[in-house]
C-alpha cells in the first residue's frame, strides 16, 4: 500500500472506498528461515531489519491477536536516551538516532516529535544525581541540560513550584527526547516488512516448540506446525508463558502498568514532564488529550487492567504538580502487562537451545527501544553475534555478575 | 483488592507491601554442593505463572505480619490467605 497527496484528495472526494489493506494476510507456509513470535513493535521491527539490513526475507511474524494489540498500542509513547549505565546508554542512543530517521527510512508518518523531556528535581541529592546522569548521557552521545528553577519556570510557569513536600528546584532537560505515535510505529514496521516479503500472520497463537536433540525445529501454533531455521521469541509481557513451553524459567515477573488519557484540551503542555518523586508523568497528544501515568501496580499480574489505589496515587501526583488539572475529566484508562526483569534491563540473546532466541524484559520502557531492539535482534539472528551496543543484554548476566541495575534496587522487579 | 487477613479480617491491599513468589520462603542450603546454582535460581528465576500464584505480602501499614496469598494473576481473585509463619513452619523452615 502506497500513499500520496493526490490519493488522499481523490479518496476524500469518493467516499474513502479505494483504500487497500496496508499488509497482506497470508496463511502460514510450511517452513521459514526465521519465525518471529509476537507482532508487537519489537517483533515487527526485527522482521523489517532482518529483511532490510540482512536480506533475509523468508520470515513469518506470528501474532496471537492482531498487530499492535499488545503493549506497542498501550504505552504512553515516550522515547528518550537518558540512561546512566554503560550497558544501556549506547543502545538507547542508537534507538533515538534510529527514531530520528525512521519516517524517511520506512516512508510512513510515525509522528516522531522531539518535544523534549524534563525530569524534575526537588532536592540537592536529586540535583547531584541529575547532573551525574546528564554527564553520562553526554558521554554516550546523547544530550542533556541541567535547568535551575527559573529555567523550569520559563518553560512551564503553571507547575506548582512551592509544593511543601516536593518543591521544584530544577530539572534535567533532554531536548531530543519526545513522543512517537505508537500505533503508527507498529503499522509502519508491518507495512515495511510486508513490502519486503515478510509474512505477517495474525490470529495465530504459538502453543509450543518442536525441540529435538537440543535444536528448535519450529513452533506449534493454532494454525498447525510451522517449521523454522531460527525461532525468535519477542512477546514482552507473555515472555514467561511462552518460554516455559521450551522448558525455560526466566529472570522476569509480569506486572501491570496503567495509563490514562484526558478529554481533549487546547495546547497546554508542549513537552513531556516527569515527576518521579510523585509517581506521575504527563504529555499532551496531538489530539489534545493529556496522556499520563505513574508506577506499576506492584504485584504479579496478567490481567491487562490495574486497581484503584494506583489510579488514586497517579491522580494525586498530577494534582500536586499541576493543580490546574483539577477540573480535567479523564476519558480512558487501561493497563498493559510488563515483562519486569530482575535488574530492570532487557535481554536480547540466544538460549541454551540451538535455533531458539529470546528478546524480552523491557519493563515499562520498551517502546523507546523498538528500533534498536529490532536492529540488534536482527543482527544477532543474522550473524550469530550480539550487536556492539547490545552485548550486555545476556540471559546469563545474573550468573556472571553482570547486572545492569539503573536504579540500584537489586533483584526486586516491582521496584525497578 | 481486599485481603482477608487471618487475624485482622478484611483489609485493603493498599496497607500491604508486595515481595513476590512465596517460593522465597524456601531459601537454599548455603552449605550444599550446588549452593551457587541454588542461590542463582532462588534469587533470579521465577515461575511467573498466569493463573494461581502463591506470594508474599507484608502488612506494613498494619500488624507487620507476613502473609502468603494464593491469588489468580489473571483475575486478581484472592483464593486463600495464610500467615507466612504457619506456611514456613509447615515446610520445616523455622522452629
Ligand atoms: C501503560 C504503559 C505505558 C508505557 N509507556 C511507555 C513509554 O512511555 N515509553 C516506553 O519506552 N515504553 C513504555 N511502555 C513499555 C512498552 O510499551 C513495552 O516495553 C513494549 O511495547 C514491549 O515490546 P512490544 O511492542 O514488542 O510488545 P507487545 O506489543 O506487547 O508485543 C508482544 C506481542 O506478542 C504477542 N504474543 C504473546 N504471546 C503470544 C503467543 N503465544 N503466540 C503469538 N503471539 C503472542 C502479543 O499478542 C503481543 O502482540 C509502556 C507500557 C505500558 C503498558
Structural class, judged by helices and strands of chain B? alpha+beta
| Helix and strand composition category of chain A | alpha/beta
The end-to-end span of chain B amounts to 32 Å
Strand content of chain B: 25-35%
How many angstroms does the end-to-end distance of chain A come to?
41 Å
- Regarding quaternary structure, how should these chains be classified? heterodimer
Low-pLDDT runs of 5+ residues of chain B are none
Rg over alpha carbons of chain A: 21 Å
Mean pLDDT of chain B: 96
Largest sheet of chain A: 8 strands, mixed
Secondary structure tally, helices of chain A: 10
Our count of helices of chain B gives: 2
What's the helix-strand series of chain A? HEHEEHEHEHEEHEEEEHEEEEHEEEHH
Sheet-strand content of chain A, in percent, reads 25-35%
Cofactors, ions and other ligands in the entry = flavin-adenine dinucleotide
Describe the largest sheet of chain B.
Answer: 4 strands, antiparallel
Q: Summarize model confidence as the mean pLDDT of chain A.
A: 97
Order of helices and strands of chain B: EEEHEEEH
Which residues of chain A form runs of ≥5 with pLDDT under 50? none
Query: What fraction, in percent, of the residue positions of chain A are helical?
Result: 25-40%
According to DSSP, the number of beta strands of chain A is 18
Amino acid at each position: 500500500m502506497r500513499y500520496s497527496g493526490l490519493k488522499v484528495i481523490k479518496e476524500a472526494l469518493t467516499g474513502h472506498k479505494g483504500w487497500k489493506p496496508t499488509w497482506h494476510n497470508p496463511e502460514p507456509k510450511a517452513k521459514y528461515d526465521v519465525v518471529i513470535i509476537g507482532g508487537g513493535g519489537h517483533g515487527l521491527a526485527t522482521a523489517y531489519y532482518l529483511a532490510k539490513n540482512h536480506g533475509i526475507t523468508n520470515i513469518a511474524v506470528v501474532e496471537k491477536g492482531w498487530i499492535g494489540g499488545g503493549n506497542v498500542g498501550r504505552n504512553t509513547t515516550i522515547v528518550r536516551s537518558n540512561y546512566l549505565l554503560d550497558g544501556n546508554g549506547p543502545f538507547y542512543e542508537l534507538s533515538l538516532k534510529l527514531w530520528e530517521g525512521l519516517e524517511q527510512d520506512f516512508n510512513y508518518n510515525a509522528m516522531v516529535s522531539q518535544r523534549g523531556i524534563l525530569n524534575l528535581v526537588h532536592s540537592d541529592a536529586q540535583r547531584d544525581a541529575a547532573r551525574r546522569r546528564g554527564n553520562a548521557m553526554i558521554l554516550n552521545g546523547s544530550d542533556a541540560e541541567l535547568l535551575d528553577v527559573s529555567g523550569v519556570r520559563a518553560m512551564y510557569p503553571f507547575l506548582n513550584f512551592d509544593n511543601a513536600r516536593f518543591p521544584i528546584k530544577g530539572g534535567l532537560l533532554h531536548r531530543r527526547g519526545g513522543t512517537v505515535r505508537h500505533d503508527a510505529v507498529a503499522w509502519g514496521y508491518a507495512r515495511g516488512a510486508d513490502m519486503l516479503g515478510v509474512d505477517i500472520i495474525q490470529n495465530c497463537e504459538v502453543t509450543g516448540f518442536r525441540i529435538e536433540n537440543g535444536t528448535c525445529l519450529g513452533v506449534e501454533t493454532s494454525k498447525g506446525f510451522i517449521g523454522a531455521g531460527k525461532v525468535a521469541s519477542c512477546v514482552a509481557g507473555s515472555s514467561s508463558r511462552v518460554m516455559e513451553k521450551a522448558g525455560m524459567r526466566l529472570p522476569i515477573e509480569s506486572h501491570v502498568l496503567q495509563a490514562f488519557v484526558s478529554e481533549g484540551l487546547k495546547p497546554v503542555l508542549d513537552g513531556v514532564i516527569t515527576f518521579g518523586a510523585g509517581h506521575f508523568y504527563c504529555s499532551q497528544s496531538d489530539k489534545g488529550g493529556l496522556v499520563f501515568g505513574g508506577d506499576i501496580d506492584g504485584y504479579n499480574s496478567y490481567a491487562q487492567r490495574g486497581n484503584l489505589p494506583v489510579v488514586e496515587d497517579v491522580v494525586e501526583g498530577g494534582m500536586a504538580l499541576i493543580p490546574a488539572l483539577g477540573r480535567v475529566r479523564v476519558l480512558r484508562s487501561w493497563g498493559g502487562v510488563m515483562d519486569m526483569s530482575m535488574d530492570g534491563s532487557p535481554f536480547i540473546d540466544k538460549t541454551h537451545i540451538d535455533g531458539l532466541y529470546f528478546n524480552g524484559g523491557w519493563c515499562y520502557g520498551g517502546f523507546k527501544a523498538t528500533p534498536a531492539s529490532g536492529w540488534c535482534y536482527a543482527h544477532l539472528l543474522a550473524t550469530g553475534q550480539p550487536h556492539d551496543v547490545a552485548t550486555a543484554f545476556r540471559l546469563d548476566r545474573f550468573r556472571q555478575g553482570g547486572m545492569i541495575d539503573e536504579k540500584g534496587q537489586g533483584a526486586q522487579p516491582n521496584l525497578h | 483488592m481486599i485481603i482477608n487477613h487471618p487475624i485482622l479480617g478484611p483489609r485493603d491491599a493498599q496497607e500491604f507491601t508486595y515481595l513476590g513468589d512465596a517460593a522465597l520462603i524456601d531459601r537454599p542450603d548455603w552449605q550444599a554442593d550446588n549452593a551457587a546454582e541454588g542461590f542463582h535460581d532462588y534469587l533470579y528465576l521465577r515461575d511467573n505463572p498466569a493463573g494461581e500464584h502463591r506470594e508474599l505480602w507484608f502488612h506494613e501499614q498494619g500488624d507487620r505480619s507476613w502473609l502468603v496469598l494464593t491469588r489468580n494473576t489473571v483475575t486478581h481473585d484472592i483464593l486463600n490467605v495464610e500467615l507466612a509463619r504457619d506456611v514456613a513452619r509447615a515446610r520445616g523452615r523455622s522452629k
